[in-house]
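Collaborator request, handled under Task 6.
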Amino acid sequence: MIDWLQSLDFVQRALMAGIGISILAGPLGSLMLWRRMAYFGDTLAHSTLLGISLALLLHINIYAGLITVCLLVAFLLAGLTKQKWLASDAILGILSHSTLAIGLIAATAIRGVRVDLLSYLYGDILSVNLQDIAWIYLVMTIVLLLLRYLWRWLLSATIDSDLARVEGVPVEFTSWSLIIMLALVFAVAIKLVGVLLITALLIIPASAARKLAQTPEVMVVTAS
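Structure tokens returned to the collaborator:
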């Protein structure tokens, strides 16, 4: 298996990585659309540049930095959007642009390391290597298993959270699980699609599939 992967050229590696991300984009993009989380996704995407910068500054694995920062920002967003003193869209806007700005400043301040900001802002799928593919398919396996286990709960909580609670659905648990899944996918997809375009990859196909599907499951598959 390893020998076969090593024999792939850059186009084949890009295709494998793109397929892995596309499989995840369908269900998660649909859930983001149903829950009106597009701006949440933008904020999470902008935070990935901060994760890359911190990973380079601390000399740790890029994906370790990405996943850690994405999870921290996702949890921070989930907590702050529940407070009442400032509107949720204002909180999202502040965090979105703050993390992007800090990430840009940190990236340009790193000494001894040349950071190609354009490749992170817009993505560079043809530069995908075997490590990237391994991370993508690891995250894909984890997320698909979680979605299979939580799908009915996620649908119920999306349609009517109060009714879902009455029916015994752990609404808070499913919401946090979705946030974790989104953070993982954003972290591994950023190299392919870029900070500025990752949310579009999830939202636009799901929006197009909405008119072509009669059930949530068909919409998910169509979006992918």
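The cover message to the collaborator said: "The mean pLDDT is 85. The chain has eleven helices and no strands. Please let us know whether this matches your experimental observations."
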